[in-house]
From TrEMBL:
NHL repeat positions: 62-97
Extent of the signal sequence: 1-19
UniProt keyword Repeat present: yes
InterPro entries from the UniProt entry: 6-blade_b-propeller_TolB-like (IPR011042), NHL_repeat (IPR001258)
Native organism: Vitrella brassicaformis (strain CCMP3155)
This protein's UniProt keywords: Repeat, Signal
Protein name: SMP-30/Gluconolactonase/LRE-like region domain-containing protein
A Pfam match: NHL
Length: 344
């Protein structure tokens, strides 16, 4: 019996070591949009924390048909990249995948919504897409099944009665949808777990200035504002954090000028896109305490507007071979000579 157990261990131990070695690594990325540049780029977070900042790599360019990309979101489970292009009045869907350690997409978009001016989008864990319809005081959504069938978007909330007033910033914490209002009643609000119960929309915080970006991580809600009266001279914006169910917001920083978007990762970090300064900065969401002075630089990106976080593993078997070859060839020059902006 003892010999049999030793034999089993002799087989299982090498196999477990092999299985551990063969597990695909998880790659972490930020996806950034630049409306004025007409580009969508990605940042590898493998070296996150480098005091000199990271590099950006082009993912999509104006030559790929983009005009004014703003909101970006990634459905990692299904390998989908969503881009809200306000210049095209469309939301585009791309097949996204990891090749080596790089994030690529097939550059052959599917239009999932058109004829609507959208700046902010969010995806939940089921793959449903949420977005704001500017000028309509409305939030709309599409499920995976609706997008696959080519169905039009459905209305989620509409009108001031549902606490939707020029909605800006969207986030989904895997349970609830959170957004900000940019007209009259400046506020951050949260939908119930079942959004059809529109009467249960909850105001988490009221603000003195328009809300821009919103992010949520299950424990906290983060948001950015413009024209903050507390902003430092030469800046103008502010970043706030509060508990997921509301309460008194904590002002994290006023060392931003135009913080258009904000995102969280799976490790407690919060990333803020500052369009006017052309950079993405970060802070620890786990601490959620005021930060004195400048926020740590993540990456410089001219006129950065949207920011989204994703983590994915390489899965060659799911990639269309022609798309993989095309996308890889398109990205080679960018990967060899990454686009890095010098400090202004």
């Amino acid at each position: 019996m003892k010999g049999f157990l030793l034999l089993c261990l002799g087989i299982l131990l090498p196999w477990s070591a092999f299985a551990k070695r063969s597990s695909p690594p998880i790659h972490r990325f930020l996806v950034l949009s630049s409306a004025s540049e007409g580009t969508v780029s990605f940042v590898k977070l493998d070296s996150f924390g480098d005091e000199h900042g990271l590099s950006t790599f082009n993912l999509l360019r104006s030559e790929d048909g983009l005009v004014s990309p703003r909101g970006v979101a990634v459905d990692a489970e299904r390998g989908r990249l969503y881009v809200a292009d306000s210049g095209l009045s469309k939301i585009l869907q791309y097949k996204a995948f990891v090749h080596g350690s790089d994030l690529l997409c097939d550059r052959i978009p599917t239009t999932v919504a058109s004829g609507v001016s959208v700046r902010y989008i969010a995806v939940d864990h089921q793959g449903s897409l949420y977005f704001n319809a500017e000028g309509k005081n409305a939030l709309q959504y599409m499920t995976v099944e609706m997008m696959s069938a080519g169905e039009p978007p459905a209305s989620l909330y509409a009108g001031a009665g549902a606490k939707v007033m020029a909605p800006r910033g969207l986030a989904h914490d895997s349970i609830s949808l959170v957004w900000g209002n940019d007209q009259q009643d400046f506020s951050v609000v949260k939908a119930p777990e079942k959004p059809e119960n529109s009467g249960q929309v909850k105001v988490l915080a009221r603000t003195k200035e328009p809300v821009l970006g919103v992010a949520a991580d299950g424990a906290h809600v983060y948001y950015t504002t413009a024209r903050s009266p507390a902003a430092r001279p030469g800046f103008g914006g502010a970043i706030y954090a509060m508990k997921k169910d509301g309460g008194n917001p904590i002002r994290i920083s006023t060392a931003v000028r135009k913080p258009t978007d904000i995102a969280t990762d799976s490790q407690g970090n919060v990333f803020v896109a500052d369009e006017e300064r052309g950079r993405v900065v970060s802070f620890s969401g786990a601490v959620a305490a005021p930060v004195k002075g400048e926020l740590p630089l993540v990456v410089r990106c001219p006129s950065v507007w949207g920011v989204a976080y994703t983590e994915m593993v390489e899965d060659i078997s799911s990639q269309p071979r022609t798309s993989l070859i095309t996308a890889t060839a398109h990205a080679v020059s960018e990967l060899i000579s990454p686009h890095v902006e010098e400090e202004a």
